[in-house]
Amino acid sequence: MIKILYILKKEFLLIIRDIHAVTVLFIMPAVFIMIMSLAMRDLFELHGAVSIDVLAVNQDAGKKSEAFLKAMDALRTFRFHLIEKEAAADKVKEQMLARDYKFALIIKENFSAFVEKNGKGKEGKPLELLVNPAVNVQTQLVLKSALDGKLAKLTWDAFIDRMGSLLPLAGIDREKLTATEESPVEVNYVYKEGQYSKIPSAVQQSVPAWLVFSMFFIVIPISNTFISEREQGTLMRLKSMNVSKFYLIMGKMAPYLLINAIQVVIMIAMGVYIVPFLGGTALTLGDSMGGLILIAASVSFSAISMALLIASAARTTEQATTVGGVLNIIFGALGGIMVPKFVMPEFMQNLADMSPMSWGLEGFLDIFLRNGNVSDVLPKSLYLFIFGVVMLTLTAILLRRRREV
Amino acid sequence: MIEIKHLYKSYDKPVLKDVNLSVRRGSILGLLGPNGAGKTTLISILTGVIRKESGCITVGGRDLDRELKAIQLKCSYVPQTLAFYRLLTAFENLEYFGALWGLKGKKLKERMEFCIDIGSMQPFAKKRVDQFSGGMKRRLNLAIGLLNAPEILYLDEPTVGVDTQSRNYILETIRKINRERKTTIIYTSHYMDEIEQVSDEIAIIDEGKIILHDDKQAILTRDDAVLINVEKIGEAVVKGLQQIVGVRIEKNGVHVKRDERFNENMAGVFALFHAHGVLVKDAVFGRRTLEKLFLKLTDIRLRDEG
Question: Which ipTM was obtained for this model?
Fold first, then answer.
């Protein structure tokens, strides 16, 4: 036991004093989590939060435009920045370009009149939408559809108001004619597994994604120490000292399991405390501590096992860090770390299932997002464990062949 | 102390072929050999790092195969490479390796203090090793090997790349350990003068076989002779010299072998010269150097080609 403590101490000191390892294991994921959680906030929260900024000028002479803007704001998809009423179209265009707006909306003077006359009149169209040509058609359609919809509702409501006194006489219930605010379409996100689920927020996606990614980057310090030990004869010295294979393997496993655990705590703390402090939403952890520990330990075991295989196969630390880095980036890109899995087409989601990072990420999302428990993460943990055992077996075969153990 | 009989080991081709060697308890064996001769393989087998294919090795009367663990506890291996952690301090390195030897508490502290002392590392024991000079690193490498107070110490080129002062210090330390603790030491080096300086016995290994093994003095005095440079000598003198066993005539002069009849032979040779009026120009005590012997035995050609 005392040997393991000294092995742990040695590995910790080596990592703490290795600036590259500290950067890759702790600083890189922390920075990624902060940047991605904040940068992707609006994209991930499109369904619930303001995301598209629109410059607006309200030249309406009446009151209907205010109700219209209020209804648009309620969608929480657009944020309208009103400028002075007197601004002419040229000035609006000028400001739009100067302030880098993608859209500008001019609510014309005749807006209220248009609504009240049920869309009839000679005054022309009540809304003018100025669009930056760089904006994609889909985004333009989102805004245009919203404007059309709200204007149509406003016009219909105005019509019903005008007909209000006649409706009871005709035996019509006014309430039934009023257009509801609520969409008749229910939206549910369907994952490949067929599980109805929530879409993650930016922080819910970023924390587990970059955490899993950084846990796999344990390959850098493991390769550095393992290959150095081999090249500098330390491994030979340890073998001549009759240090058992158990200590040699535990000497690599135990310290890095602990280092991965520290990564988990720090990155979760980033999501819970630092990201909200910087203006993002806070990470919610779910209710299953057991599930969280299980999935974290499984990711750690598979990451360390893969790192040991790479370190054993590589001749130099440069080789190991290059191969390890490239493999991690491929696994990350494939496994939904860099591009969230829910935006991938189906065939890419199928491919993503081949990445151990995807198993880890889905496990964390089960806990953070879907209120999963131990039984929910068990299948992913099992995949990760089997992956780790395969990696360790290959490592043992390789070392035996090279007469290094 | 160490008995090796008919040791055989091969990788793709045989590396050790029928190695036979015996090392006395408390002696220092200097093991010499060209690159690829099998020195490191031999030491790796003796330290239990790799396994032999056939042959028999006993260490202190114990069979290496059957009692490897017990033997390893009494041995220590100092590799040619600097086998420690550069990002740790000397103190932390000693503490780590000491703990792996199973030392703890007061015993660990005592052994660390001894090693720091013997390596003269007091002023920099708490400095990171990557700030050390080459000599300091070599001393630490040796000190780590002394943590378990070994009965047998295997040293693989322990002075590579160090300055003269550190080299002398290391050699003195090795002698001191041997003298004070009666530690048996197997020492490999490419520096012949080092082997001459520290060894009691010398073994030369080449192409997987021990081709020479004897006491240092016996090896170094073998073929010792006095070379006498003279003026031209006549036929009568040549005939007279040829009658004396241990005297031979070569182009560069007359060689008188330094054996048990040396004094008698020298008197005979000078009497002959005096009788025929031969003028002696000079006389040189020619001692065969280890390097010359090594080159002669192992062939002068380069061995790097494998």
Answer: 0.78
pLDDT score at B306: 42
| Region of residue B244 (left: phi > 0; alpha: psi -120 to 50; beta: else) | beta
Query: Phi and psi of A404, rounded to 5°?
Result: -100, -10
Around B72, how many Cα atoms within 13 Å sit in the side-chain half-sphere? 23
The two tokens of residue A72 are 């648009």
Domain that holds residue A60: 51-186
CB contact under 8 A, A14 and B88: yes
Give yes or no for a contact between B208 and B14, defined as CB atoms under 8 angstroms apart: yes
Question: What is the reported pLDDT for B110?
Answer: 94
DSSP A353-389: TT-HHHHHHHHHHHHHTS---HHHHHHHHHHHHHHHH
**Any alpha helices (H) in chain B, and if so which ranges?**
39-46, 68-73, 90-100, 105-118, 134-144, 164-181, 192-198, 216-221, 235-242, 262-275, 290-298
Asked if B212 and B246 touch (Cβ cutoff 8 Å), the reply is no
A and B: number of Cβ contacts within 8 A: 80
> Do A37 and A207 meet the contact criterion of CB atoms below 8 Å apart?
yes
Provide the 10 A C-beta neighbour count for residue A12: 14
Mind listing the pLDDT tens digit for each residue in A341-397?
777 777 888 888 889 999 999 999 889 888 888 999 999 999 999 999 999 999 988
Closest CA to A39 of A275, A299, A216, A234: A275
Residue A14 near residue A254, CB atoms below 8 Å: no
Q: How far apart are CA B3 and CA B22, in angstroms?
A: 5
In 3D space, the residue among B138, B134, B169, B168 whose CA is nearest the CA of residue B156 turns out to be B138
Do B92 and B125 form a contact (C-beta atoms < 8 A)?
no
Of B73, B83, B148, the CB nearest to A234: B83
Q: Are residues A210 and A165 in the same domain?
A: no
User: What pLDDT, on a 0 to 100 scale, did the predictor assign at position A336?
Assistant: 86
Q: How many domains does chain A have?
A: 2
CB A200 within 8 A of CB A36: no
Q: What is the rounded CA–CA span in Å between residue B190 and residue B145?
A: 20
Q: What is the pTM of this model?
A: 0.69
Beta-carbon count within 10 A of B266 CB: 18
Q: How far apart are CA B43 and CA B81, in angstroms?
A: 14
Decide which of A125, A153, A186 is a domain's last residue.
Answer: A186
Within 8 A of B99 by CB-CB distance, chain A residues are 2-3, 5-6
Question: Cβ contacts of residue A324 below 8 Å, gap of 6+?
Answer: A217, A219, A220, A223, A307, A310
What domains can you pick out in chain B, each with its CATH number?
Answer: 2-219 (3.40.50.300), 224-287 (3.30.70)
Q: Are the beta carbons of B63 and B71 closer than 8 angstroms?
A: no
Taking contacts as CB-CB distances below 8 angstroms, the residues of chain B near A240 are 47-49, 72, 75-77, 154
Which residues are within 8 A (CB) of A163 and not within 5 positions of it... i.e. 6 or more apart?
Answer: none
Q: What are phi and psi of B151, to 5 degrees?
A: -85, -30
Tell me the two tokens of residue A182. 């609520």
Give the list of residues 6+ apart from residue A104 with CB closer than 8 angstroms, or none: A54, A55, A56, A57, A92, A93, A95, A96, A129, A130
Residue A191 lies in a domain: no
What residues of chain A have any CB closer than 8 angstroms to a CB in chain B?
2-3, 5-7, 9-10, 13-14, 17-18, 228, 231-234, 236-243, 247, 403
| CATH, residue A70 | 3.40.190.10
Continuous segment of H or E residues that includes residue A26: none
